Amino acid sequence: xxxxxxxxxxxxxxxxxxxxxxxxxxxxxxxxxxxxxxxxxxxxxxxxxxxxxxxxxxxxxxxxxxxxxxxxxxxxxxxxxxxxxxxxxxxxxxxxxxxxxxxxxxxxxxxxxxxxxxxxxxxxxxxxxxxxxxxxxxxxxxxxxxxxxxxxxxxxxxxxxxxxxxxxxxxxxxxxxxxxxxxxxxxxxxxxxxxxxxxxxxxxxxxxxxxxxxxxxxxxxxxxxxxxxxxxxxxxxxxxxxxxxxxxxxxxxxxxxxxxxxxxxxxxxxxxxxxxxxxxxxxxxxxxxxxxxxxxxxxx
Length: 300
Fold this sequence. Notes:
The protein contains ten helices and 14 strands. By secondary structure, the protein is of the alpha/beta class. It has two domains: 100 residues, Alpha-Beta Plaits; 191 residues, Rossmann fold. Helix 6 links the parallel strand 9 and strand 10. The longest helix has 13 residues. The termini are far apart. Belongs to the methyltransferase superfamily. PrmA family. It catalyses: L-lysyl-[protein] + 3 S-adenosyl-L-methionine = N(6),N(6),N(6)-trimethyl-L-lysyl-[protein] + 3 S-adenosyl-L-homocysteine + 3 H(+).
């Protein structure tokens, strides 16, 4: 079997229409990619961030005994999107399977501490290796804010401690904490897909028995007043500031915390809000603009 890929570059406002169009024409999959190397802010859980210009790709299966009429397909698409750049190509079966997998490589966070796509061999078998399915939900370690949180967990004493991962996405931070020795991790996200992804990635890493993950209401019921020794939230500056007081109730006195999804210009505002409840001990920057704020909960 071969696979036909049709790539169309559109403005952000046209993405939904283009996805629907390609799907209605029989695409077995539709993917979105950046057309201009534009950085995106770390999204809120459940959000789907989009670039200003997007390459929308429809993938069509061509059976050996039935060829796709590419010209007719492109002609019809042109009636709906007359001026948008478009190109097509055929891929062999194996090549299509590899197109997204080849984009991922193991990522070293620190010495003896790696993220490893689940289909790849760990570079160091005796290291802390976080196995991850990058396709499930946001959070692969490639983004600076996720990397900063993973780095912080690696140098924080989490052994035999209770950890909260708020806005868990793929669950990578909760899983990392458990692999680093945490006794229990509680994770939450407003996106049901993220809850499922976290469960699956925890199972993949053999730590599901020490993880609780649920939507916020379920999460609050499960905690039942229990407080974390270590708290991490990788979301956005606005929600972080709105949730500061609530977060303060989830962390033990002198418990350690890290916040990410904050750009350099927002650090002062976020720190001012959190200083009511926390001692700000460190601000770490990566990739020029992304920052992590960390410190400890005030004593009771």
